[in-house]
Amino acid sequence: GDSVTQMEGPVTLSEEAFLTINCTYTATGYPSLFWYVQYPGEGLQLLLKATKADDKGSNKGFEATYRKETTSFHLEKGSVQVSDSAVYFCALRVGSNYKLTFGKGTLLTVNP
Amino acid sequence: ETGVTQTPRHLVMGMTNKKSLKCEQHLGHNAMYWYKQSAKKPLELMFVYSLEERVENNSVPSRFSPECPNSSHLFLHLHTLQPEDSALYLCASSQDREEDTQYFGPGTRLTVL
After folding, report:
1. Which residues of B touch A93 (CB under 8 A)?
2. Is the CB of B43 less than 8 angstroms away from the CB of A89?
3. How many CB pairs under 8 A join A and B?
4. pLDDT tens for each residue of A28-81
């Protein structure tokens, strides 16, 4: 079946540090890939997505590139802020399918 | 109200109780979803409704019973739950196609004693 594996947290960084959260996947077909973010007390929000190999999704300074050869979609940001503290979820969808398959989430804490 | 709202935000219930979770979306969407978010586990899709018809039911125990009376409202009726059902229950909605972006509510934190 389809699955997503993302790095275990928690991740703790100082403000302005570089962020990488690793995500790898296995899929039965050709997936679309997503990063969602969940701020404290809120629901998940779509952060960025990529629908085909070598696409780069980007939003709010975050980036992730769809790497088919390594089945990866790592999330990066060059300089994190305290307001980026949240749980980050990697997810995939295969084909025309309502179902999103999520990773377990990675808690990021950014200290001033 | 904007986006996807859920009530109550917190719920504590005994194993013999019956309660309902409510979700409302103010986005004009036609598809609605229930997810379960347990600690240390990936989000699990429970049910999907499209135009008030259930289109997915992912092997969820019958003690969870969804209801979608119209495209703006979704309920999850709960009865004779187990302590392991304690979790955050998230509602989401999307426009109408499977590939459309899902928008999530803040969730209901359920504790079963």
Report:
1. 98-99
2. yes
3. 53
4. 888 999 999 999 888 899 999 999 999 999 999 999 999 999 999 999 999 999
Position of tokens 């959260």?
A21
3-class SS of residue A102: strand
pLDDT in tens, B43-79: 999 999 988 888 877 789 999 999 999 999 999 999 9
Of residues A87, A59, A64, A90, the one with CA closest to residue A76: A64
Q: What is the DSSP string of B36-105?
A: EE-TTS--EEEEEEETTEEEEE-S--TTEEEEEEETTEEEEEEES--GGG-EEEEEEEESSSTTSPPEE-
CA dist A102 → A24, A80, A92 (Å): 11, 23, 7
Which residue in B97, B98, B104 is closest to A43 by CB distance?
A: B104
